[in-house]
Every structure is written in structure tokens, then in C-alpha cells.
Design goal:
The chain has a five-stranded mixed β-sheet with strand order 1-2-5-4-3. It folds into two domains: 58 residues; 105 residues, no CATH class. It has five helices and five strands. The protein is α+β, with helices and mostly antiparallel strands.
Length: 170
């Protein structure tokens, strides 16, 4: 019952998102105009049109609701995760707060954003390190910045940075 109710809640949120998108689309004659306003190429617009034509509300799921559902399902089956390894799609302050409150250790891949500020400002130095980072909404989390050397086209090794949110791990 609980899982079914949660799924219904997620589907209702997805329906609201779809209505908002339809209202946005109604303000412009077609998606090509909308893409032109954004400066997107025509090929991209055609792909987006194809994807939007095949969208089903059952597949629009929010990451936090998905995570809650999966953790509850694991618990009902008698399993527990020692550490969660999550994709960039789960890197949000809501998920960080939820996992911290649940005391669930996790490592979440974090996108590097910004031109000079944000998490890109942490991509400095020659070695990997951990630091406490405050997101724009005030949520604090431990970030592990991993420096790796990868070859470019010419074969010269260049520094590439990876960012991870670390929750309840040393």
C-alpha cells in the first residue's frame, strides 16, 4: 500500500510537470521556435521532438522519490546497503539531507558546475583532497575532489577532476 501511494504521488508530480511543459510549449508555435530561442541546432530539436512524443508519465520519476522507494523496498526484503554509490542524477541537496538524516553512508558523483566559481573553483592543485563545501541553499557536505591524469589527443597527460559527495564516510 505504501509503495503504491508513493508511486501515485510521483505520477501526480510528473503530471504537474507535464502540464507546465505543455503550457510552455503552448506559448510558442512549435518546438523549433522554442529551440531557436535557446539557440539549439535543428537536429537537436528533431531529436527532442521525437523523445517528447514518446514520453510516458510512468517513466517520469523524481530521484528522491525513487531513492526512498528503493531503500524502503530493500528494507522490506530484509536487506540493507552498507554504502550507496549513486550517479550524478542523484546529486541534490534534498538527497544529501535525506541520506544524512537516515544515517546512510553514500558516495554520490557530483557534477562540476560554474565557469570560475561553484564546484569548479575547487578544481585546483596537483593532488586529490577532501573539503567541506556549502551549496547555494546552505547545505553543507563533504566533497572528495579526485585529480586524475588522462591523455589528450596528442598523448600529453592532462589533469581531469572528478567530484564526489561523501556522506558518513571517512
Amino acid at each position: 500500500e505504501y509503495a503504491e501511494k508513493k508511486i501515485e504521488d510521483v505520477l501526480q508530480k510528473a503530471q504537474i510537470w507535464r502540464q507546465n511543459f505543455e503550457a510552455l510549449k503552448a506559448n510558442h508555435k512549435n518546438l523549433s521556435d522554442l529551440c531557436a530561442l535557446c539557440g539549439a541546432p535543428d537536429l537537436f530539436c528533431r531529436r527532442v521532438q521525437r523523445i517528447l512524443a514518446n514520453i510516458d508519465n510512468n517513466f517520469l520519476v523524481l530521484p528522491l522519490e525513487t531513492l526512498k522507494f528503493l531503500l524502503k523496498r530493500l528494507q522490506t526484503l530484509g536487506f540493507s546497503a552498507k554504502v550507496l554509490y549513486l550517479d550524478k542524477g542523484f546529486a541534490s541537496t534534498a538527497i544529501v539531507n535525506y541520506l544524512s538524516a537516515q544515517k546512510q553512508p553514500a558516495i554520490i558523483a557530483n557534477p562540476i558546475r560554474g565557469k570560475k566559481g561553484g564546484t569548479r573553483a575547487l578544481c585546483r592543485g596537483r593532488s586529490s583532497y577532501k573539503t567541506l563545501y556549502t551549496f547555494s541553499d546552505g547545505t553543507q557536505a563533504m566533497l572528495a575532489m579526485k585529480a586524475s591524469l588522462v591523455p589528450d589527443r596528442s598523448g600529453k597527460r592532462r589533469r581531469k577532476w572528478l567530484s564526489f559527495i561523501v556522506i558518513l564516510l571517512d
